[in-house]
Structure formats: C-alpha cells, structure tokens
Amino acid sequence: MSPPLVVYGAGVRFDDVPGTDHHLVRHLARHVDVWWVDPPVSVLRPRGRPGACGDGVRRVPVTTTPLPSRPGGRVLARAATALTVRRLLRRDGRTPLAVVSARPEPHLRDLPARCHVYYATDDFVAGAGLLGLSERGLRHAERRSLARADLAVAVTPLLQARWGPAVPSMVLPNGCDSTRYAGVPDPDPVTEPVAAVVGQLSARIDLALLEAVVDRGRRLLLVGPADPSLDRPRFDRLVERPEVTWLGRRPASELPALLSGVKVGLTPYTDTAFNRASHPLKTLEYLAAGRAVVSTPLPAVATLACPAVATGATPEAFADAVDRALDAPDDSASVAGRKAFAARHDWGVRAQTLLVEITRVAR
Questions:
Q1: 307 and 204 share one domain
Q2: Largest CB tally within 10 Å, which of 1, 122, 262, 284?
C-alpha cells in the first residue's frame, strides 16, 4: 500500500534559500510522501527541474504566463498550478491526505483532499511591502485561503489571534534541526569572542543594532545573502569595517562549522508588525549549536521563555546585552542546556505535531 500523500504548496521555490518550508517538508517526508509545488513562474524564466528530490520529496515546478504577480496573471497562475497538480494526481491515483498552502494565494484550494490546510509561516499581510505585493490583495487572498481551510496553522499566537475564533486553527512555531548542530563544540575560551548573524540579510534586520555592536569594538560575522530590500549603501559601510566579516550565502551543511567559531548568535530584527508576528529560525538554530542568543524583544522570544536568550530593544541596550553575553564564561553545562532546550523544538517534533492534527481533522 502506498504511503499517504501531502501536496505542499510552498511559499518559495525548492532551490531558494532553505527556510521554514524546506525544514518542515523534509521532516514530513519521513512519514508521508510529499509533493513540493513551487510558486508559479513565467514561461520566460527557468522553472527548475521536476521530479524526485530524495527523502520522499517530489518537486513540482509550475509555469504560467508572464507577470504572474499582476491581478490578471494571478488568475492564470492559480489555474496553471491546479491543472499541473491535477494531472499528476490522476496519474498517481491517490487522494492526498492533505493539501497545504504555505502562501496566501489559494492556488490549490479546489484540489481533492481529505484536509485543506492554510499554513501562515509569516504575517503575509503585514509583510506586503517587504514582499513587494499589494496589502489589499494579500488580505483578500488570505481571507479566501482561511475560508477554504479545514485547518489554519499560524507560526505565532499573535498571528492566530488576528484570525479570530471562527477559524479552526493551531499554532506551529518554527523549529530547528537539533541533530545537525549537536556536534558543534563548546566556544573556545582563548580566541576573541565573535557575535554572528546567520540567515537572509534583508530590511528585516536593524542595521543600527549591528553598528552599535561593532562600535564597541566587537567582532561580527555575517552569514547569508544580501536581499534587494536591504539598505545597501549602509550595509556596505558596515561590512567594510575591519571588525566585520561577511561570507555571503553558504550551504546549510557549512553552518555547524561556522557556528563553532561563534560565541553569541544575534537576531537583530526591526520593530515592525511583520517581525512581531514572526518566529525567527535563527534563534533556535543558535541554541541548537549551544550558543547564547541576543535578540530584539519579539513576542516569539517571550513565548520561548529561554533564559539563554537576552534581549535589547535599542542600539545601546542591544550592544550592552551582546557585551554581557560575549564576556560571560561558557561552561559545558550551559552549552548542553541550550542544546537540550533546542532539541525540544526540533523540526521532527513540529512535523509530528502537524501530522497528528491533520490526521484528526481528516477523519
């Protein structure tokens, strides 16, 4: 008998920077077959290679007419996505256990499935400007997604509360791959301590906080691509400073080795509605590597309630917290405690939680 099938309408393409979709899908695929459906792209762009990606994941690229983000183009993009997946389902013969839409546009809403899930990995409406999309259009699309969903999944309680009690929903915070970072050694007490930011560097990052850290003479490592939304002249001035090293995008396989030379991980997010409703991946990944963390005071940090995560809202307070974390002695028990905390938030736990709820709703 074939295993259950989950059709996952991802918010990003399979070959984009790995994020929430990638991590969750990889762990879901340990229990069910997963089809990763790329967001539709214009026929004028490369669509990516279809087929099996390993570990029980099959990639489904979708092509559509040019300008798929325009109002008329979105209609055609939805039709192209549904048609592509329907054809594959007819050949496969299975009715999916679940169709998960991890983007506000309900491209897969009319597919047959035992359970339709809307999965908000971020507050898409609040992030309309960052995404370069219409806030009004995203709000309308989200309402349609929620109306079609048998289950709505929010990454934070703040986002869930915005939907109201009429929507059957659950909170599924982001997680971490705790086993990937389990072998990261304790910070070296001899070398000069380094603070690091790992992940996509975009307008979500408060550069003033990082400037304040470097103004204290602290060494700063930046790992990740520079998004077009970033204030590039200001960022370039920052990375030109002798205390700062910017490595750009690195494969996920290299991150444990990079964090072995770091003492403190930073989550320096701006105070926006979009960030307040987010659950940064990097915070738990730092903890999984046994590193102390300094973050801005996001609601997700309060929800985690981890004593190894310090906060600072202003540049001065943030730099003070970084100073304290860099200067504090690190013992093996503290490092092990952070790793143990992160293990309780592993992506495997998140995937199991979601599958249990999907199965309950699908009955």
A1: yes
A2: 284
Q: What are phi and psi of 78, to 5 degrees?
A: -60, -45
CATH code for position 132: 3.40.50.2000
Is 353 found in the same domain as 324? no
Same domain assignment for residues 101 and 200 = no
Top pLDDT among 135 and 216 is at 216
In a shared domain, residues 239 and 115: no
Q: What is residue 69's predicted lDDT score, i.e. its pLDDT?
A: 67
pLDDT of 360: 96
Domain count, the chain: 2
**Alpha-helical regions (H) of 93-156:** 128-131, 135-148
Q: Are residues 169 and 31 in the same domain?
A: yes
The whole-angstrom separation of Cα 229 and Cα 58 is 31
Q: Which of 264, 270, 178, 275 lies closest to 221, judged by CA?
A: 264
Dump the DSSP string for 12-74.
S-TTSS--HHHHHHHHHTTTSEEEEEPPPEETTS-----EEEETTEEEE--EESS-TTSHHHH
Q: What range does the domain containing 186 cover?
A: 178-343
Exposure of 44 in the CB half-sphere (CA atoms within 13 A): 4
What are residue 221's DSSP bridge partners?
196, 245
Averaged pLDDT, 65-84: 80
Greater pLDDT, 74 or 97 = 97
What does pLDDT average to over the chain? Answer: 92
Residues 303-324: tens digit of each pLDDT: 999 999 999 999 999 999 999 9
Each residue's pLDDT tens digit, 235-292: 999 999 999 999 999 998 999 999 999 999 999 999 999 999 999 999 999 999 999 9
If you compute the radius of gyration of the chain from its CA atoms, what whole number of angstroms results?
A: 21
Say yes or no: 161 and 301 in one domain: no
Kindly state whether residues 168 and 183 are assigned to the same domain: no
Q: Can you tell me the distance from the alpha carbon of 138 to that of 37, in angstroms, rounded to the nearest whole number?
A: 20
Give the pLDDT score at 84: 94
CA 124/CA 135 separation, integer angstroms: 8
